Amino acid sequence: MNYLHCYWYIQTCTSGVQIPQCLCPKDQTLKEVITKPSMWSPILNSCYLRMSDILPLDVIGRRVEVNGEYATVRFCGAVPPVAGLWLGVEWDNPERGKHDGSHEGTMYFKCRHPTGGSFVRPNIVNFGEDFLTALKKRYVLTDGPDDDEKSCSLKVGSKQVQTIGFEHITKKQSQLRSLQDISLWKCAVSCAGERGRIAEACPNIRVVDLSKNLLSTWDEVILIAEQLKDLEALDLSENKLQFPSDSPTLTRTFSTLKTLVLNKTGITWTEVLHCAPSWPVLQELYLKSNGISISERPVNALQNLRLLDLSSNPSIDESQLCLIAYLPRLEHLLLSDIGLSSIHFPDAEIGCKTSMFPALTYLIVNDNQISEWSFINELDKLQSLQALSCARNPLTKGDKAEEIIIAKIGQLKTLNRCQILPEERRGAELDYRKAFGKEWRKAGGHPDPDRNRPSAEFLSAHPRYQLLCCKYGAPEDEELKTQQPFMLKNQLLTLKIKCSNQPEQQILEKQLPDSMTIQKVKGLLSRLLKVPVSELLLSYESSKMPGREIELENDLQPLQFYSVENGDCLLVRW
């Protein structure tokens, strides 16, 4: 173990007293104190310690756990007038503390929060244990009462050797060597332990979860990782780590690492870039809740990154995102809960594609402050975007928000984790074309291409509108007439009903509300045609697009969802 007694002992006939170096009088060595009994008195008055008290050699900066709460040691020494050795700790949860590191007017250490500090006795502090000890506790069964009684014969050279418990030990070793994916979450791991023991005991580990432990420095992480030659994924979340201020010496320690999770570790963007050259094949990097600001562009670093999670870092804004916009392989970008309200790609004009984020296919911007449609318009400039999640933003609170997003981003295939079906896209685009038709006309739009000159202001607000007119045709005057929504006659659709697989069946004509669900339409047709509802299949042909058939496959959606209009023909099969 990397622990030493930090006390020297003075033996007397009645008691043993441990003297911390930090409590020796100024300019006095431990040897001088021990050999001069006249100097014992002030020390004995301020610090009487039990023989069993043990502290790590490098106690300052160590991560500790006290009664289930996590903290960092900031001070070790006496706190007069109370006798004894004290540790000054800064709690992760500032509400757990009592002060800012001061006592009776003396500042012993500093805290980021006025109530983030406390003084605690060393004997109630858990400094953790080494990696292998924690691993054995988690994955190897505790010795049973009969283990010592088991014996077997082993041939060593020409001699037969009787062994006790050998079979059980071999089984344990086999268990450890076969491990590939391990979780030591909240196991109080604080160090690597004796060099080489991890590699010897469990050489095949590929995935390691070390989140919420007591690791204090990145150097200690390296001591663990260098013994796992096949390490592919490492989770260090909620370890308050001290990272190197300069780029560490390049080694092959992380040469196989593809996924690294550093959520709530306190890492800065500068420290990320310092360490990044040591992660040559890294594909996924999670940096959630670190208070990160992106201060510089990653040059010759993170070039293989496919996923980057910057969620819950409220200092990040759209200007900082430009610094990571040219990571060549970045496909997934997570920006939830950063306070984002706008985004702009200045290199692309309206209707053009940006060169920024060239490989980005999936963007997550949940729980932000997005309230303007210009944000969505900009996303249509991304050349590879196929999936978007933007839940719980002011912009998405309206009933029609998702339909408008689908209409505004032409290549989108998934929205808020739901697949966009072809008929859903068609319905959204037709509704959008109709909803803004009057505005388009007022801005200079016209069905005649030679007279179609919508204003720049309209095109800026609706970059895809012209494309939708080319795709479906310009909205006709009849479509743009204002309907009176409270009068049933203005909501009725006159539809033809044709039985596709029954040519002898007469074509029917019915008036149906546009709010009528497909399920209710099937119920009506079931009664008319004397066919069970479960056997009916519905589709329709638009009078504006003859020869093209659109399936009505979602029973819960109304006719208007599929943009069914007057004069269209319902096709029925069974």
From TrEMBL:
The lineage of its organism: Eukaryota, Metazoa, Chordata, Craniata, Vertebrata. PANTHER family: CILIA- AND FLAGELLA-ASSOCIATED PROTEIN 410-RELATED, LEUCINE RICH REPEAT PROTEIN. GO terms for biological process: adult locomotory behavior; developmental growth; mitotic spindle organization; muscle atrophy; peripheral nervous system neuron axonogenesis; post-chaperonin tubulin folding pathway; post-embryonic development. It comes from Rattus norvegicus. SMART domains: CAP_GLY. This is Tubulin-specific chaperone E. Belongs to the TBCE family. The keyword Cell membrane does not apply. Its main location: cytoplasm. GO terms for cellular component: cytoskeleton. Supercomplex made of cofactors A to E. Cofactors A and D function by capturing and stabilizing tubulin in a quasi-native conformation. Cofactor E binds to the cofactor D-tubulin complex; interaction with cofactor C then causes the release of tubulin polypeptides that are committed to the native state. Cofactors B and E can form a heterodimer which binds to alpha-tubulin and enhances their ability to dissociate tubulin heterodimers. Interacts with TBCD. The keyword Chaperone applies. Tubulin-folding protein; involved in the second step of the tubulin folding pathway and in the regulation of tubulin heterodimer dissociation. Required for correct organization of microtubule cytoskeleton and mitotic splindle, and maintenance of the neuronal microtubule network. It is found in: Cytoplasm, Cytoskeleton. PROSITE patterns: CAP_GLY_1 (PS00845), CAP_GLY_2 (PS50245). Keywords: Acetylation, Chaperone, Cytoplasm, Cytoskeleton, Leucine-rich repeat, Phosphoprotein, Repeat. Residues 77-121 form the CAP-Gly domain.
